[in-house]
């Protein structure tokens, strides 16, 4: 894997989540946090300490790829996360989904 910056690729599911957050003013604070987490993943990389990125063991990623989890929020009920995989190229991260931690 290469060093940052990374190009972020979004699944249709992620695009829908972002669209839903943008559509309602009540989600403005959540959208701001999501955008910050995505910006950190893109510009600094998953190693940024605030993201607390780690491999997500419970579920494999698409095609059996290693699925990773990064924090959008912490110490909050139903805190939101970003789940992503490396690739398809070394300088890319594919954002698989965004939402509350199960």
How would you describe this protein?
The protein contains two helices and five strands. It has 102 residues and is of the alpha+beta class. Strands 1-5-4-3-2 form a five-stranded mixed β-sheet. The radius of gyration is 13 Å and the shape is globular. The model has no long low-confidence stretch (mean pLDDT 94).
Distance between the termini: 28 Å
Radius of gyration: 13 Å
Topology as H/E string? Answer: EHHEEEE
Task: Name the beta content range.
Answer: 25-35%
CATH class: Alpha Beta
The CATH superfamily title:
RelE-like
Report the mean per-residue pLDDT as an integer: 94
Number of strands: 5
Q: If helices are DSSP runs of H or I spanning 4 or more residues, what is the number of helices?
A: 2
Task: Kindly summarize this structure in a few lines.
The protein is α+β, with helices and mostly antiparallel strands and 102 residues long. It has two helices and five strands, in the order E-H-H-E-E-E-E.
């Amino acid at each position: 894997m290469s060093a940052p910056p990374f190009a972020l690729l979004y699944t249709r599911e992620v695009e829908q989540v972002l669209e839903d957050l943008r559509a309602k003013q009540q989600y403005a604070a959540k959208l701001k946090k999501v955008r910050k987490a995505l910006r950190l993943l893109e510009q600094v990389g998953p190693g940024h300490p605030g993201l607390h990125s780690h491999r997500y063991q419970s579920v494999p990623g698409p095609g059996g790829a290693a699925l990773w989890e990064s924090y959008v929020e912490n110490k909050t009920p139903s805190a939101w996360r970003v789940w992503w995989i490396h690739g398809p190229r070394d300088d890319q991260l594919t954002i698989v989904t965004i939402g509350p931690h199960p």
